[in-house]
Design a protein that fits this description.
Blueprint (H helix, E strand, L loop, with lengths): L1 E6 L4 H13 L3 E4 L10 H13 L5 E6 L3 H7 L7 E3 L3 H9 L5 E5 L5 H13 L6 H10 L3
Parallel strand pairs: 1-2, 1-3, 3-5, 4-5
The structure holds D-ribose.
């Protein structure tokens, strides 16, 4: 799968770990930055990843900031992006099964690396249920 990943300074350590996981899983990974723990502004990187997913250049996107809140707010401003802030496994699974989320957001200051890896594995391997959930997504798409 083609996946684009981005972060701010608060998400940089976790992004580094998740990038390795994705590559080990056999995914093609594009790193949209940032590239260190020097302070940056999360909207810049959130916009880069969300735009790429909205255009269809990548099947999925992953964004990591400190809490996950800023990145999810930014990402969901882009038409066609369904960004899900998941700091637990249940949300990760349901964001795929019910919401067909195409962009995963995590809070790098809230969860540890082991849990984050499990969230990513779950999110990438859980299919969309379709059915009534497809109708609801179509209703979301009408509100742009
Ligand atoms: C950075 O200090 C922090 O505000 C940012 O990573 C994120 O949590 C914002 O929502």
């Amino acid at each position: 799968m083609k996946i684009i990943i981005g972060c701010d300074h608060a998400g940089f350590p976790l992004k580094t770990q998740i990038k390795v996981l994705l590559e080990n899983m056999g995914h093609t990974v594009e790193d949209a930055g940032c590239l260190s723990e020097d302070s940056v502004d999360y909207p810049v990187y959130g916009k880069a990843v969300a735009t790429a997913v909205a255009k269809g250049n990548f099947a999925r996107g992953i964004l990591i900031c400190g809490s996950g809140l800023g990145m999810s707010m930014i990402a969901n401003r882009f038409t066609g992006v369904r960004a899900a802030l998941c700091n637990d496994l249940f949300s990760a699974a349901l964001s795929r099964r019910h919401n067909d989320a195409n962009l995963l957001v995590m809070g790098g200051r809230l969860i540890g690396g082991d849990l984050a890896e499990e969230i990513v594995r779950t999110w990438l391997t859980t299919e969309f249920d379709g059915g009534r959930h497809q109708r609801r997504i179509a209703q979301m798409d009408e509100i742009q």
